[in-house]
Amino acid sequence: MSSEQKQVSSSQAQSIVEWLKEIGVETEVKVDKYNVAWAEVPMEKIKDSIRILKEKGYRHLTTISGVDLPDEGVMELIYHLAPVKMDGYPLLCLKTRIPRDKPEIETITDIFTVAIVYEREVYDLLGVKFIGHKGLSRILLPRDVPEDYHPLRKK
Amino acid sequence: MGLYIPIGPYHPALKEPITIKIKVEGEKIIDADIELGYNHRGIEKLLESKLWISVPFIAEHICGICSGVHQLTAIMGIERIFDIEDKIPERAMMLRIVGLELERIHSHLLWLGVAAHEAGYDTIFMYTWRDREKVLDVLEILGGRRVVYSIGKVGGVRRDVDDKFIRKAKETMKYIKKQAKEYIRIFEEDPIVQARFRNVAILPYNVAVDLGAVGPTARASGVPYDIRAEDRYFGYSEEIGMRVAVRKEGDALAKVLVRLDEVIISADIVENVLENLPSGPIEIKVPPLKAPSPGEAYARSEAPRGELVYYYRSDGKRTPYRVKVRTPTLANILSAGYMVRGGYIADVPVAFASIDPCIACMERYVVIDDGKKIRKMRWARLIHYANKWFKQNLHWLKEERL
Fold first, then answer.
1. Would you say residue A112 lies in a domain?
2. Which CATH number fits domain B43-329: 3.40.1190.10, 3.40.50.720, 3.10.410.10, 1.10.645.10?
3. A65, A144, B98, B297: which one has the fewest Cβ atoms less than 10 Å from its Cβ?
4. Cα gap A123→B49, rounded to integer Å
């Protein structure tokens, strides 16, 4: 990527930082050279952050990834958002950390309808409970798998 | 009141089984619920135990039809985590595009055959599958196999091409374009096809956006969202003939036509790329036991069915810490549920096939009458039933649909 394009990305990263500041989230947005931005927000603010980003133009939720980090005692959720009709804006991976012994977070299904399937997938494979999700149940694994078994947990 | 009809889950013909529970009143479907969970193979977990450079060769087995795009998107992510993406030779990138576009053509032709078959139009099914075989012949020279062809590897592509391949590929593309135009004419003019496809399974623009539909399913509803145009990975650009095909109607017919438009665009891209194929090496060497520095990478691309996503996390070891794959059918599953609603039972085959599901095709069709009477129907019998029903009802349907 040329230096000019990098400059553009960083000015847009700055505007993402300012949008998040509006709802009281102080965070740093890093744009890598493949035009993907990475940011971390606290779990209490994830819903507000996603709501404001959707208003500003990140109107496509690509997916939600979950990573289990037992050494640090947390699980990391990554909300992959994509800009729609916004010139030069990077893809955004919005991270949040939730405690491993109480993996619960607010649902975002009322902002992105498609999150219904993605949240069910994370619940299925990692056991994260999404509060407020109607019909949170297994989606990929068979129904007769024991309730507390989540295969992508590391321990 | 109403009658619940579960469709599925098992059929040996396609990769993944699925259950669709539909609620009907008479012939009309008033609600639909989709259940997955019959074929989890644990590939994400398996990939955590593989060397980085062997990940793509497992990843391509996720899908039997679009194996190439799975492999190359997996490679894209790994090259980002190794930080070598800008060192990949241009010739390798262009050969990857050739592979991806040939795959898109064969996948769309395969789907078109299946969709026509489900509507009882087996002539089209035989024509398209004959044409698809010609594309597979070209892919066989490129990769070495008809399916699961392993075009790429971390650092470049596996095999180079010669003039003979370029000549054969161009000839085939010319033929495919001619055929695709003929199929567009048939689908736009044939009254029987129109009765089965037009105004069936409509997905309006705002619903497609709201439900996060991707790929041709979204583009048939007027959403101009194509990752090739958004991200321009591997060097996709207008110079090689990249255009976004969009249709506005949102019905099953639009989904057929948008895919046929894409076949023509893909054939153009293959021709243009092969015309100006840069010379030079096709790969850079990557040590097989290479361990990247800790970090993460995100890669996405436009598979024949829509947006495909890979996410990697590395903790500095020789194997990935976490690999996450999101296939396009998962993103389209809510749209499929929406499209089935409001139609007739006889529309289910066409409606459900119209998202090009990688999970559908059902062996068994069970009709449960208020939990007391159970009537079982094979998928083939459902299609037979649908064809008969349309024959009887064509006189009034014509007025409703055309």
1. no
2. 1.10.645.10
3. A144
4. 23
| Contact: B309, A63; criterion CB under 8 Å | yes
Q: How far apart are the first and last CA of chain B?
A: 32
Best CA proximity match to B148, nearest among B91, B202, B77, B70: B70
DSSP string, B200-214: SS---HHHHHHTT--
> What predicted TM-score, i.e. pTM, was given to this entire model?
0.87
**Closest to B37 (Cβ–Cβ): which among A84, A142, A151?**
A142
Nearest residue to B157 via CA among B239, B76, B44: B76
Judging contacts by C-beta atoms under 8 Å, the chain A residues touching residue B331 are 63, 114, 117
Flag if A140 and B40 touch (Cβ within 8 Å).
Answer: yes
User: Which positions 89-128 of B are in contact with A (Cβ < 8 Å)?
Assistant: none
Domain residue limits, chain B: 2-38+360-401, 43-329
What is the structure's pLDDT at B342?
A: 78
To 10 degrees, the CA torsion angle through B364, B369, B375, B380?
Answer: -40
* Residue pointed to by tokens 């990935």: B320
Cβ contacts of residue A87 below 8 Å, gap of 6+? none
Look up the ipTM and state it: 0.92
**What phi and psi values does residue B303 have, to the nearest 5 degrees?**
-80, 165
Strand-by-strand arrangement of the A36-40 sheet: A30-31, A36-40, A91-99, A74-82, A60-69
Is residue B358 predicted with pLDDT exceeding 60? no
What is the residue range of A81's domain?
10-106
Domain count, chain A: 1
Residues of chain A positioned with their CB less than 8 A from the CB of B80: 32, 34
- CA atoms of B73 and B96, how far apart (whole Å): 11
How many Å lie between the alpha carbon of B270 and the closest alpha carbon of chain A?
Answer: 25
Binned at pLDDT 50, 70 and 90, residue A69 comes out as very high
